[in-house]
């Protein structure tokens, strides 16, 4: 083994890394990320009315969205890449539940127009991840096969009940 091989060992594939067969295309993954970043940016504005609650919770939610979806926005924080890597290892339904819950909680605390609009895009990010968890819809051939099998089973049940009556 050469000294260069000792200095730079071959990188083994990370088993916890997100797999390519998780059902999300590259453009859908970017759509989810962009929606998360925009959802984080929409939470930053200050309250429009004095009756609105303090924006600390919205800022915390926006910070978490930025950490999970866009760690390059938080380069000054040491653990940003670690949080993003951990968020990438989550399944789509887990991200959906986390983002939707994170968006619904402030709305439940204070139902105002600014809170509702500030959390709508973050909720939409959760919905996008939830849709990706459902997976692709089947092709027409598989649907036709299922329909044919159901039709055949119905005909068999019908002939069986007719034979029982005779």
From TrEMBL:
Keyword terms: Membrane, Transmembrane, Transmembrane helix
TM annotation in the entry: 96-129
Topology of this chain in the membrane: Multi-pass membrane protein
GO terms classed as biological process: vesicle-mediated transport
Keyword set includes Transmembrane: yes
Compartments in which it is found: Endomembrane system
One term under GO cellular component: membrane
Main location: membrane
Family: Belongs to the calcium channel flower family.
Protein's name according to its UniProt entry: FLOWR protein
Organism: Ceuthmochares aereus
The organism's taxonomic lineage, starting at the top: Eukaryota, Metazoa, Chordata, Craniata, Vertebrata
Protein encoded by which gene: Cacfd1
